[in-house]
Amino acid sequence: METKNNSGAIFKNDKKTSETHPDYKGKVNVNGKDMEVALWLKTSQAGMKYFSASFSEPYIKPEARVVTDDSDDDLPF
Questions:
Q1: Could you tell me the pTM of the whole model?
Q2: CB of 55 within 8 A of CB of 31?
Q3: Do β-strands 7-12 and 49-56 pair in parallel, antiparallel, or remain unpaired?
């Protein structure tokens, strides 16, 4: 899904299994930069509900490295 500049979408986190996991997650684009957003629903000491937010760069899965063993080429025998 392409996110338009200065917009985004946030969804309820159906995979939350711990209090440390966000209640809502989504993707936003701010000034042309894609970001991930996580929201936690909190309650202040005065009893007011609010969202605590965290923004991060999108996760990029590391590419699998293929290791080749060319060390035999340098052996003198």
A1: 0.72
A2: no
A3: unpaired
